[in-house]
């Protein structure tokens, strides 16, 4: 009977739960879904990680390539993130070129990398104007159940921490690059940005970590990215209904708590891979 | 009718704005918006026919298309389109026109990238007004730059933008002066964010006043 009500009046169905201050999946309004993380998932990539936030599953693979630095920044390498939403993850994505959501997510991740100073790009440069690393980060969603942006940021951070790059020297005689695969060094991560997404329901109620259903019924979405020093790296609210100052404040406080939880998780996983080796 | 206004260089320090409406004959509504060196031309078609695959049974479908001055639209334009589209969807009364489409086309007129997202949203709002589409509130957009020494500058020039530590763009609504859209680059503290929002809300009053005067002419 509940299933019939849910299909016919999804908004009323969700409202009846919100009246009791909880959600259809039994969570509180401010509760995140259980998050699990796994690194070194892809053996052929230089760094990889897989994250599950509830049902949302996102995997990231990092491939490092050598290239000539761009002429407007000759002493810096660069990172190219790409978010892919294949038809596998949800019936609302059709095969073909990346849709708007995937492109907007890719742009968001690129902005977060730049804003948070995640990696010092100058450390990716091997020789000025001649050789630098370019890190291609392919983020693919395997199961879409809402909260894509948070999952992408966590998986990117974990994959970069997992990544090992070989030492590259330039042979003075041949002027060619030589990569020593035996000697691999991890990347130095300066900042640990973590995102928290919120959905505004009915212009008044704020839900943390929305599922795909909650996202489709919400009137606005907000993603706040904080780093370990409680500085804000991104406050991303792409339109939707307005949000008052105090609600925004409340969301940011929740994001700061979430940052600590996720950092503990990422550190735990990184430590366990180190001891396993 | 074109209007150039030298806005009061008071606490918000906004520079010259320019706006011209109804300049194109084919779109239902059109407007240019000039902010400093950046100019954008917006055209609105709607309510019009919608493809069956895109139609929504109880609301109008909003589409935003952004064309840069040079080259083809890329990933950055898609992200801006998403922001503009969701801001319009919240402002327009879409349930009055079910199974139809509202298309907003934005053409960048200048190569200057300064305050681009703000200018896009302001041009969009003026074009929607010119098209006569029913809206529950108007919106305007303000850009704040936080310089390296912590000073907050509204309406930054291209040079100030490049040298800033953070760049925040907000869309403010005309009824309750709350934040409709927020897009940020760079890192900043919570206090700086709150100060920027307060400053943007004050600056939005001037822009709404400008909208009123443009429409009166």
Automatic annotation (TrEMBL), chain A:
Listed GO cellular component terms?
A: cytoplasmic exosome (RNase complex); nuclear exosome (RNase complex); nucleolus
> Pfam families given for it?
RNase_PH, RNase_PH_C
What keyword terms does UniProt attach to this protein? Acetylation, Cytoplasm, Exosome, Nucleus, RNA-binding, rRNA processing
Alphabetically, the GO molecular function entries are: mRNA 3'-UTR AU-rich region binding
Question: Which GO biological-process labels does this protein carry?
Answer: exonucleolytic trimming to generate mature 3'-end of 5.8S rRNA from tricistronic rRNA transcript (SSU-rRNA, 5.8S rRNA, LSU-rRNA); nuclear mRNA surveillance; nuclear polyadenylation-dependent rRNA catabolic process; rRNA catabolic process; TRAMP-dependent tRNA surveillance pathway; U1 snRNA 3'-end processing; U4 snRNA 3'-end processing; U5 snRNA 3'-end processing
Q: Does the keyword Cell membrane apply?
A: no
Q: What is its main location?
A: cytoplasm
SUPFAM superfamilies with a match to the protein in the record: Ribonuclease PH domain 2-like (SSF55666), Ribosomal protein S5 domain 2-like (SSF54211)
Protein's cellular compartments: Cytoplasm; Nucleus, Nucleolus
InterPro entries in the record? ExoRNase_PH_dom1, ExoRNase_PH_dom2, ExoRNase_PH_dom2_sf, Exosome_comp_Rrp42_subfam, PNPase/RNase_PH_dom_sf, Ribosomal_Su5_D2-typ_SF, Rrp43
Pinpoint the Exoribonuclease phosphorolytic domain residues. Answer: 31-166, 193-256
What Gene3D superfamilies would the database entry show? GHMP Kinase, N-terminal domain (3.30.230.70)
Looking up PANTHER family in the UniProt record yields: EXOSOME COMPLEX COMPONENT RRP43 (PTHR11097:SF9), EXOSOME COMPLEX EXONUCLEASE RIBOSOMAL RNA PROCESSING PROTEIN (PTHR11097)
Tell me its family.
Belongs to the RNase PH family.
**What name appears for this protein in its UniProt entry?**
Exosome complex component RRP43
Organism of origin is Carassius auratus (Goldfish)
UniProtKB/TrEMBL annotation, chain B:
Signal peptide boundaries: none
What's in the GO CC field?
cytoplasmic exosome (RNase complex); nuclear exosome (RNase complex); nucleolus
Output the Pfam families linked to this UniProt entry.
RNase_PH, RNase_PH_C
Principal location:
cytoplasm
What's a BP term from Gene Ontology annotated to this protein? Answer: U4 snRNA 3'-end processing
Q: Where is this protein localized, as stated in its record?
A: Cytoplasm; Nucleus, Nucleolus
Q: Which UniProt keywords apply?
A: Cytoplasm, DNA-binding, Exosome, Nucleus, Phosphoprotein, rRNA processing
For this chain, one GO molecular function annotation is: DNA binding
Entry's SUPFAM superfamilies?
Answer: Ribonuclease PH domain 2-like, Ribosomal protein S5 domain 2-like
- Please list the residue ranges annotated as the Exoribonuclease phosphorolytic domain: 14-134, 137-202
Subunit details:
Homodimer. Component of the RNA exosome core complex (Exo-9), composed of EXOSC1, EXOSC2, EXOSC3, EXOSC4, EXOSC5, EXOSC6, EXOSC7, EXOSC8 and EXOSC9; within the complex interacts with EXOSC3, EXOSC8, and EXOSC9. The catalytically inactive RNA exosome core complex (Exo-9) associates with the catalytic subunit EXOSC10/RRP6. Exo-9 may associate with DIS3 to form the nucleolar exosome complex, or DIS3L to form the cytoplasmic exosome complex.
What is the similarity comment for this entry? Belongs to the RNase PH family.
Q: What is this protein called?
A: Exosome complex component RRP46
Q: Which organism is it from?
A: Carassius auratus
Starting at the broadest rank, the lineage of the source organism is:
Eukaryota, Metazoa, Chordata, Craniata, Vertebrata
The gene it comes from is: exosc5
């Amino acid at each position: 009977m509940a299933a019939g009500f849910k299909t016919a009046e999804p908004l009323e169905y969700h409202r009846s739960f919100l009246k009791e201050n909880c959600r259809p999946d039994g969570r509180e309004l401010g509760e995140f879904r259980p998050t699990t993380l796994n690194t070194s998932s892809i053996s052929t990539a230089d760094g990889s990680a897989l994250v599950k936030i509830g049902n949302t599953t996102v995997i990231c693979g990092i491939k490092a390539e050598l290239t000539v630095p761009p002429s407007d920044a000759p002493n810096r390498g660069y990172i190219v993130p790409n978010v892919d939403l294949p038809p596998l993850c949800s019936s609302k994505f059709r095969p073909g070129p990346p849709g708007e959501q995937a492109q907007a997510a890719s742009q968001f991740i690129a902005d977060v990398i730049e804003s948070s100073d995640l990696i010092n790009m100058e450390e990716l440069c091997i020789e000025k104007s001649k050789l630098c690393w370019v890190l291609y980060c392919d983020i693919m969603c395997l199961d879409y159940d809402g909260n894509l942006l948070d999952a992408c940021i966590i998986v990117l951070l974990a994959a970069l921490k997992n990544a090992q790059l070989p030492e590259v020297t330039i042979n003075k005689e041949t002027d060619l690059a030589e990569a020593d695969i035996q000697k691999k060094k991890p990347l130095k991560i300066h900042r640990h940005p973590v995102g928290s997404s919120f959905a505004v329901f009915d212009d008044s109620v704020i839900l943390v970590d929305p599922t795909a259903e909650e996202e489709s019924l919400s009137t606005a979405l907000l993603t706040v990215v904080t780093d370990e020093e409680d500085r804000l790296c991104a406050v991303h609210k792409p339109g939707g209904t307005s949000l008052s100052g105090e609600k925004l404040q409340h969301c940011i406080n929740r994001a700061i708590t979430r940052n600590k939880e996720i950092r503990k998780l990422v550190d735990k996983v990184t430590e366990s891979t180190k001891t396993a080796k | 009718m074109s209007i150039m206004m030298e806005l009061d260089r008071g606490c918000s320090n906004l520079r010259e704005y320019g706006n011209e409406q109804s300049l194109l004959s084919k779109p239902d509504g059109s407007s240019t918006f000039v902010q400093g060196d950046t100019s954008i031309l917006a055209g609105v078609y709607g309510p019009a026919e919608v493809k069956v695959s895109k139609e929504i049974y109880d609301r109008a479908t909003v589409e935003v298309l952004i064309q840069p001055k040079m080259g083809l639209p890329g990933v950055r334009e898609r992200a801006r389109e998403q922001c503009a589209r969701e801001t319009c969807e919240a402002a327009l009364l879409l349930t009055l026109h079910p199974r139809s489409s509202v298309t907003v086309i934005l053409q960048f007129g200048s190569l200057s990238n300064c305050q681009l997202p703000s200018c896009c949203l302001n041009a969009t709002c003026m074009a929607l007004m010119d098209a006569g589409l029913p809206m529950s509130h108007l919106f305007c957009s303000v850009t704040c730059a936080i310089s390296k020494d912590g000073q907050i500058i509204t309406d930054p020039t291209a040079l100030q933008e490049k040298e800033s530590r953070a760049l925040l763009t907000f869309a403010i609504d005309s009824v309750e002066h709350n934040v409709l859209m927020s897009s940020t680059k760079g890192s900043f503290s919570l206090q700086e964010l709150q100060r920027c929002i307060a400053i943007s809300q004050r600056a939005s009053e001037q822009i709404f006043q400008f909208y009123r005067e443009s429409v009166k002419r």
